[in-house]
């Protein structure tokens, strides 16, 4: 079986996961989604992995779902129990995920980028949901995730026309967190991942949990999630060393003054 996913640890605490189907423009076959879920499951409790960078090889993030599979298997290609479980595992991965997007992220590839917590994109990249051009609609979460992030109007435009948007438009809509020159998305995403990996892993996971709850609950329920999360941070002593260092720096400054 071909190596459809490449995994490496380019920096301490950072796992790089590369979609490796360049001839298919990194189309998300069921095998690829399963392998991706397997990697995340192994990294779930690994103390050596604190942040993940997701990238596509060949200058393209992903062209979307595997059309050949859909043509052959119909709805079962994307609406099967195992694929649903694998998508859920990827989405529920507790550690921060950064998508590094070059070229384009279309269809299911865009939906995969939406599952990431941050998107670093090259300034000439594009994002799109072209499913309507095939007589269907997104089936891996875009109608819900994109609408929550970018708003109803832009989501409607992208899914009703099938036309892609520029990286600049995606950035303005809050879909992309950082724009970088062409060819540097992975480099900048890794720098960001290294910065995150140096923080308290417990706090980072609790931040992710709390922010994601804002898209799934009422304000009052989300605030309670936040309160419970900070209680956990204190209970697990994730604050002890950082606060001790901070106070030490403050005292040192006063002494020198």
Question: Could you explain the architecture of this structure?
Answer:
The chain has about 260 residues and is of the alpha/beta class. It folds into two domains: about 190 residues, 2-enoyl-CoA Hydratase, Chain A, domain 1; about 55 residues. The strands form two sheets. It has a six-stranded mixed β-sheet, with helices on both faces. A three-stranded mixed β-sheet has the order 5-7-8. Strand 1 and strand 2 form a beta hairpin.
Write the layout of secondary structure elements.
Blueprint: E1 5-11, E2 14-19, H1 30-43, E3 51-56, H2 67-73, H3 81-91, E4 97-101, E5 104-106, H4 108-115, E6 118-122, E7 126-128, H5 142-150, H6 152-161, E8 165-166, H7 167-172, E9 178-180, H8 185-197, H9 201-213, H10 219-235, H11 240-256
Parallel strand pairs: 2-3, 3-4, 4-6, 5-7, 6-9
Antiparallel strand pairs: 1-2, 7-8
Helix pairs in contact: 1-3, 5-6, 9-10
